Amino acid sequence: MPIRPENVLRYPPDWPEISLAIKERAGWRCECEGECGRGTHPGRCPNVHEGEAYGTGSVVILTTAHLDHTPENVDPANLRAMCQGCHLHYDAGHHAVTRAQTRARALADAGQLAVDIGAAATPVMPPTRPQTLPTVPAPATEQLLLDLPEPLEGTRP
After folding, report:
1. Keywords of this protein's UniProt record, alphabetized (predicted)?
2. For the whole model, what pTM was predicted?
3. Longest dimension (CA), the chain
């Protein structure tokens, strides 16, 4: 995956060599065994660098994924060679969080007031209705009689 300009300094100077070593360790094949959550294949992903991608036919680009999403952590146990599809799926949750943080920062920089999500998410219960219905006096019988005119001749009553 391309390194964003704001993250370049988080990677060690020898990152290209480290990334290359991880891809060589993997035999230039995706090392994902389903942890990406795609569910497109049983066992290890069959995608090979510059080959045809399993299921899509696109060209595979092998990348190096940080399992803990921390570029500073270049321990080989934390690094996995992944095709672009597995890498994007593996990072999807992390990307959603950083996208929300970036949007919140942009809104704050534009003058938007921050919202305490915890307070905003507290449910407010609607007022409760009385358990007993109020008693209403029954109308008097004479109130129910209507003063209607007599039916016209030739019509049914």
Report:
1. Plasmid
2. 0.63
3. 108
SS (H, E, C) the chain: CCCCHHHHHHCCCCHHHHHHHHHHHCCCECCCCCCCCCCCCCCCCCCECCCECCCCCCECCEEEEECCCCCCCCCHHHEEEEEHHHHHHHHHHHHHHHHHHHHHHHHHHCCCCCCCHHHHCCCCCCCCCCCCCCCCCCCCHHHHCCCCCCCCCCCCC
45 touches 33 (CB < 8 A) = yes
Cβ-contact 71, 7 below 8 angstroms: yes
Residue in the structure block whose two tokens are 């680009």: 61
Cα separation of 118 and 24, whole Å?
46
Domains of the chain by residue range: 5-109
pLDDT tens digits, 115-152: 666 555 555 555 555 566 566 666 665 555 566 677 77
CA distance 55 to 89: 15
Token digits for 62? 């092998």
Taking only the tens place, the pLDDT of each residue in 27-64 is: 999 999 988 888 887 899 999 999 999 888 899 999 99
